Prior knowledge:
The chain is about 45% helix and about 15% strand. It is an alpha+beta fold and about 300 residues long.
Amino acid sequence: MAIRFDRPVSSAARFSRLLGAFSLVLALAVMIAHRFGGLATPYLVLLLIAAAGGALLAAMLAAVGLRSLWVSGAEGGLAALAALIYAAFPLALGAFATEHYLTLPDIYDVSTDPVSVPDWLKPPKADQIWLKRNPVMPEDREKQISAYPELTGRRYEGALDRVLEAVRKVAKQSGFVIVKSTGDTEPDRDPEDRPAKPEPGDDAAVADAPDIVPVPTPRPYDDDIAKLIRGANGVTLQATNRTLILGLRFDILIRLREEAETTFVDIRVASRYGQHDLGFSADIAGDYLKALDSELLGIAGG
């Protein structure tokens, strides 16, 4: 008479496979919906947290199943292994976010000029739902300086229009979409429409000149004319950008100021949602400045 041994079955291992697969599908689905659909970022974060939590539970159940396999030879080893494979991606996302959240400062706005931060041309607006943000305080700028001391502006030995051309080119290559700009390096009026300069010896032109030449009077510092004059030697560009994988939205401000024979470039980057940007803003600003340095290789200064 043949003896038949019935192996026990690990329910934990089988359930871990289902839970791990669900977590993976959930993470991928919400990422696609956010990147290419209309899913709002706060809901993306909430669902990714749920996916990471499910993946963590699946990994724990898979560990229980593997222990049962080792101790009593229970069936479920392959199911537990599959659960660990499924859970790897959501767990990696969760581990990445947790590590950056704990090790980086809780700021969402960085600037290469933390003292005189460039102002938004058009204040960004977004429905933050539960990912609320607090106003940027001086302490936040101090946190930025401590965490990202290398994030500083760039001075280039070149005319404003030359640097502006490179700034726009690198912005396009970086995926920035410019939504507003102020300042101009070229006159708005066509050269043919400009008043002709009188030729030497042209008495008619001199005869038509008024007896009294008006002299501009000083304007208040904060009126519109004064602001226009102060901005005449600079250009400011405001843009938006989305990260490649998650499609997170960021607002960007690039300010160019002409100083003597050099042009100084500052950049400001801010996340639209949440108090903590996980370091993405600093990465975007740093990568852009490195690309700009490469584009203007040889004329970057301190």
